[in-house]
Structure formats: structure tokens, C-alpha cells
Amino acid sequence: MLRGFMDQWVPTRRYLNAIWDADIKDVFKTIDNLSNEIDFNNFTFYSKWYTNGIKSTLPFLKNNDNCSNVRTDNQWGRDIIDYLHEKGMSVGLMMQLLTFEQEVWGSAPVIGQWGDEIFEFAQIEAPVVI
């Protein structure tokens, strides 16, 4: 059974994530402190929206230069995964990929939309469209 944590690699509001801009040694220290306090065997990273925490060349994904993973060309994430594996833990990645460019596809596929109320959680310029 998986017992673990989830944190975001997403550069967004501080209270939603803890490590996206941290130095790798600080991340290792956080993992060690957590494993001394709580018995867990899995760590899942969540990458979402357009301010993703994975460096990408896709034109619609914004690479935030303050994100540790972007600054290191994704080596930061690889190092965390290796560190967790060395400690016998599994690692998961949850990604939100279902999106489209409304300017290209038009409004036909739209089933819902959020506006300003989502800004508290995801600081994006465009409304969130499903």
C-alpha cells in the first residue's frame, strides 16, 4: 500500500507547494526530516497548468526561471527521484495534460469555464476552460 506525500513542482503560490524553488540539498533534508517523523514509501510530484515545473520546449508551456527544475534543465527532478529510490521509496508523477488552445479550436469543445475565482490558486492570464 502506498503511504506518502504529494508536492507540486509548479511555480505558484507558496502555500500550495513547498520545494519547487528549493536547493537540492534542502530538498534532501526535507525528505530526511519527513522520513524520520512519518513512515512513508511514496512521493508524488504534481505538475500542472501552464506554469509547469518541468523544463519544456513546448511553446504553450511557460518555463519559470525561478523553478529549480527549470534552472537545472530537469536535473533537479532526476536527482530527487534517484534520492528517493536510493531510500527504497517509489516516486509518482501526476500531470494535468488535458488542455487545448481555444484560439485554435474555438468554443465547440467547451463544457465549462472558470475565470477570476481560479486566480487565487493558479495565477494565469487566461480563464480555465474545460
Describe the structure in your own words.
The chain is of the alpha/beta class. The protein folds into 2 domains: 4-97, no CATH class; 98-130, no CATH class. It contains 4 helices and 5 strands. The chain has helices spanning 24-37, 68-71, 75-86, 102-105; strands at 4-8, 42-47, 90-95, 113-114, 128-129. It has a 3-stranded parallel β-sheet with strand order 1-2-3. The protein has a two-stranded antiparallel sheet with strand order 4-5. Strand 1, helix 1 and strand 2 form a beta-alpha-beta unit.
Task: Compute the average pLDDT.
Answer: 78
User: How large a portion of the residues is in β-strands, by DSSP E?
Assistant: 15-25%
Give the overall form. elongated
Strand order of the largest sheet: 1-2-3
SSE string: EHEHHEHEE
The domain count comes to 2
- Unreliable runs: none
Please count the beta strands (DSSP E, at least 2 residues each).
Answer: 5
Class from helix and strand fractions: alpha/beta
End-to-end distance, in Å?
A: 33 Å
Please give the share of residues in helix.
25-40%
